[in-house]
Design goal:
Oligomer: heterodimer
Strand order of the largest sheet of chain B: 2-1-3-4-5
Strand content of chain A: 15-25%
Order of helices and strands of chain B: EHEHEHEHEH
Strand content of chain B: 15-25%
Helix content of chain B: 40-55%
Largest interface: A-B, 28 and 22 residues
Helix content of chain A: 40-55%
Number of helices of chain A: 14
Structural class of chain B: alpha/beta
Radius of gyration of chain B: 13 Å
Chain lengths: ~600, ~120
């Protein structure tokens, strides 16, 4: 309420200054617009932001969950491949086959069989307990080489199984080594070593990478790429993803939940590559020196998120624009309504004030007129008596002049009488004789009285009559007086050349409207304010009594009608009369003079 | 024809009286309601010219007495109100006509003439 009263324009302070009032209305309109906009847009904005962050969170969590799952599956696949390799070699290098394998042709047959199922086996080598090559098949192994002291050999002997990183070596072909050690019956260990083309691994990884991730590759402990990524980097070079990016606290919690549910060791973080946010998961492949790295563009680059954001923005913008348009028009309508009712109130106040003023002026005028009437009657009788005596007396000097002077007195008394009678007529109810009147016809009759004067002054009188106008019951003579007065004033206001438009309209079944508009000189504000005041006239002294309009006002009021004036200086004046079809007699005023 | 003028405006009553006398009417005058009532009862006139507003009692009060006591006497009201309303009120109380001040003698004479018939 307080806010409303603060932004409401008040009529009391600025009533005299239309500009200030207009400013207040504008201010009110914009304040109202502001408040309504805030009421609508702020909740809308908050809901949008909430939806935005909620959806973002959902996508993030979903994304992390899926990526971790994908990584786990990919790791399992690669792990399975390694296990398979190992079991084949385990089978081929069976515990007690050492002697058999050294026999000519046996290793060759074995190698051919292996190649049938795995074409990427490049060569196979059997290493005796002395650390020297005992037998070999394939292109690259040179017989008699000693492996004693080499780290891979030591590790194979120590752990029973070895798998190397991918390396090019002296062959110029990327490959990796898988080796197993076996115990000899007579003591000591022999080793079976198989070289496998790096392409095998690449194929596996590529096949897995086809799932919904952006890139998948293997790295060794030093972050050197073991397979060629589809997009990010090259085999044999360091990975372009630095270790240890950050994850938001909320996501870290989600990851922790996942870690507990799935188990296993992994690392997940967010990385920026070429200005794109990427999510990376790294997971060691069990039983190998490799780590599997899975990379996916962050949800922000996904269609789901982009669509959602576009939709959100689109709907927000549409609703916002719609709300703004509606609110602006509502504010304007409310302001217009307030302005109009303020204007009506102002008009009503002015009218009431006018009525009051006229009533007191009327009482004063009636009092004065009455007081003047008595001495006027004496003057009249005295002059009459003098005339009587003169008629009875014979001729004398200056008789004629005296007669002239007396008739001058008579004329002046007559003039005074007209004024006092008019004044008294204005002040109180005079008799109303009611009869059925057809307004259109009556207006034509009245106009015929001023036709001659109008045509002399080149004033054109046009009628715009409504057909089927309900006849009104009113006082013909008084209405004629009113319209005649208005027409005379209009002709006077026009002077030379102009137009008078007389129109009638059925306002509702009970009221008829008559409008008389002229293209005359119009009235200024002062004249308009004092229009109905008795004795107020703009005509030169002696030309008008200043009573015409006040009598008009009195008559229309008495007949239960209303009169409205609109005037613009230099443009003309419009008188609008609203006449009741049937005049309801009010309680008669008692004469108070 | 015997006429009585009752009006508190002495100058008016006297002048009108003089003018009517010049025209051979039997006219007398009274300058207040009470004086008028006394003159009425002394010798009832044919016609009374009665002012409506007088300080001691109003013309209507005098008219009521005339209507009640002197059915032969006819009353013409004189009104300074400039409207027919008060005159009509007089007619309702028994006056036969009314004239508005300032009275035109011609008009008065015309009315008297019709009464004579």
């Amino acid at each position: 309420m307080n806010i409303i009263s603060k932004i409401m324009p008040s009529l009391s302070g600025d009533i005299e200054s239309p500009e200030a009032l207009e400013h207040r209305y504008r201010q009110f309109s914009s304040s109202l617009t502001g408040i309504l906009l805030a009421l609508v847009l702020i909740p809308m904005f908050i809901i949008s932001v909430l939806a935005h962050s909620q959806y973002k969170r959902m996508l993030e969590e979903e994304e992390v969950g899926r990526l971790l799952l994908n990584a786990e599956q990919a790791e399992n696949t690669v792990e399975l491949f390694v296990v398979k390799l190992r079991s084949i070699i385990n089978f081929a290098g069976h515990e007690d086959r050492y002697d058999e394998l050294l026999r000519p042709g046996v290793l060759h047959d074995l190698f051919l069989r292996l190649r049938n199922s795995f074409p990427d086996y490049t060569d196979i080598e059997v290493i005796g307990p002395d650390g020297h090559t005992a037998a070999w098949e394939g292109d690259y192994v040179s017989k008699g080489q000693s492996y004693i002291g080499q780290p891979w050999y030591d590790e194979t002997l120590h752990k029973g199984f070895y798998i190397s990183n991918i390396f090019t070596g002296f062959r110029g072909v990327p490959h990796f080594v898988v080796a197993v050690s076996r115990n000899l019956k007579g003591g000591g260990q022999w080793v079976m070593r198989v070289n496998i083309d790096g392409k095998t691994l690449q194929r596996y990884v590529d096949a897995v990478a086809a799932t919904a991730v952006d890139d998948l590759f293997l790295v060794d402990e030093k972050e050197i790429l073991q397979t060629t990524p589809e997009k990010y980097g090259e085999r044999g070079k360091p990975s372009i993803f630095p270790r240890g990016g950050a994850l938001s606290h909320r996501l870290a919690a989600e990851v922790e939940r996942h870690r507990q549910a799935v188990g296993g060791e992994f690392l997940i973080d967010r990385q920026m590559v070429d200005g794109k946010a990427m999510l990376r998961v790294a997971r060691p492949v069990v039983g190998t020196p490799w780590r599997l790295v899975m990379v996916k563009e962050d949800y922000r680059h996904g269609t789901k998120w982009i669509n959602f954001r576009n939709h959100l923005f689109f709907y927000f913008a549409c609703c916002g624009i719609l709300a703004i348009l509606i609110i602006i028009s509502i504010s304007r309508a409310i302001t217009a309504y307030i302005r109009e009712s303020d204007l009506k109130r102002k008009q009503f106040l002015r009218e009431a004030e006018n009525n009051d003023k006229l009533a007191s002026i009327g009482r004063l005028a009636a009092g004065v007129a009455h007081e003047i009437n008595n001495p006027l009657a004496i003057i009249n009788q005295k002059a009459g008596l003098m005339e009587d005596y003169m008629e009875m007396t014979g001729d004398f000097e200056y008789k004629k002049e005296l007669g002239g002077a007396l008739s001058g007195i008579d004329e002046s008394v007559e003039r005074c009488k007209t004024i006092t009678h008019r004044l008294l007529g204005f002040a109180r109810h005079t008799d109303v004789t009611e009869e059925k009147i057809e307004i259109n016809k009556m207006l034509e009759e009245v106009t015929s009285f001023v036709d001659r004067e109008a045509s002399y002054n080149q004033v054109e009188i046009n009628f715009h009559f409504a057909e089927h106008l309900t006849p009104i019951v009113s006082d013909r003579g008084q209405l004629q007086q009113v319209f005649l007065n208005i027409l005379n004033n209009a002709i006077y206001a026009i002077g030379k050349e102009g137009e008078i438009n007389i129109s009638t309209r059925q306002m509702d079944p009970d009221h008829v409207q008559v409008e008389i508009a002229d293209t005359g000189c119009g009235m200024n504000k002062e004249t308009l304010d004092r229009l109905f005041e008795p004795f107020y006239t703009t005509k030169p002294t002696g030309k008008g009594t200043g009573l015409g309009m006040s009598i008009t006002y009195g008559i229309i009021n008495k007949l239960g009608g209303r009169i409205k004036v609109a005037s613009e200086e230099g443009k003309g004046t419009v008188f609008t009369f609203l006449l009741p079809v049937r005049h309801k007699e009010e309680g008669k005023e008692k004469t108070d003079v | 024809m015997k006429i009585l003028i009752i009006d508190d405006e002495v100058e008016f009553a006297t002048t009108l009286c003089q003018r009517l006398k010049l025209r051979k009417f039997d006219v007398s005058e009274a300058h207040s309601g009470t004086e008028g009532l006394a003159a009425l009862s002394a010798s009832p006139p044919d016609v009374v010219l009665l002012d409506m507003k007088m300080p001691d009692m109003s013309g209507f009060d005098v008219l009521k007495v005339i209507s009640r006591d002197l059915p032969q006497t006819r009353t013409i009201m004189l009104t300074g109100h400039g409207s027919g309303e008060a005159g009509k009120e007089g007619l309702a109380l028994g006056a036969i006509d009314y004239l508005m001040k300032p009275v035109e003698l011609k008009e008065l004479l015309a009315k008297l003439k019709t009464l004579e018939k």
